[in-house]
Amino acid sequence: MSDDTEVLTVDGLAKMLGRTEASIREGIRRGVPWLPKSFKMGNRHCWLREDVRKFLVLLRNGEEAQAKTGRKRNPPPSLRGVA
């Protein structure tokens, strides 16, 4: 696809983000937060160029920061009683 298309596929998104196609595909599979939301046309994952730009601006401004998942951690035990 040429650089002036409105719809990006995995290879176009990889070039735009400076990553490999393999990392984009793995990110899609794992559902990573550093990828913008995609849609499917047939069997291809696609992104609108303007949506990717908006997503990157939000990331730059810190507005797209996702809360960390998982359980809350307790402080480690102390060894006060050991002499």
What do these coordinates show?
The structure is a single chain. By secondary structure, this protein is α+β, with helices and mostly antiparallel strands. It has a domain at 7-61: Arc Repressor Mutant, subunit A (Orthogonal Bundle). The chain has helices at residues 10-17, 21-30, 49-61; strands at 7-8, 39-41, 44-48. The protein is elongated. The chain starts with 6 loop residues before the first strand and ends in a 22-residue tail after the last helix. The model has no long low-confidence stretch (mean pLDDT 86).
Descriptive keywords:
Arc Repressor Mutant, subunit A, 83 residues, 37% helix, 12% strand, alpha+beta, three-stranded antiparallel sheet, 3 helices
What's the short story on this structure?
This protein is an alpha+beta fold.
Strand order of the largest sheet: 1-3-2
Per CATH, the architecture of the domain at 7-61 is Orthogonal Bundle
Q: How many helices?
A: 3
Principal-axes shape call:
elongated
Secondary structure tally: strands: 3
Order of helices and strands: EHHEEH
What's the main sheet like? 3 strands, antiparallel
- Strand content range: 5-15%
CATH topology of the domain at 7-61: Arc Repressor Mutant, subunit A
Q: Uncertain runs with pLDDT below 50, 5 residues or more? A: none
N- to C-terminal distance: 70 Å
**Estimated structural class:** alpha+beta
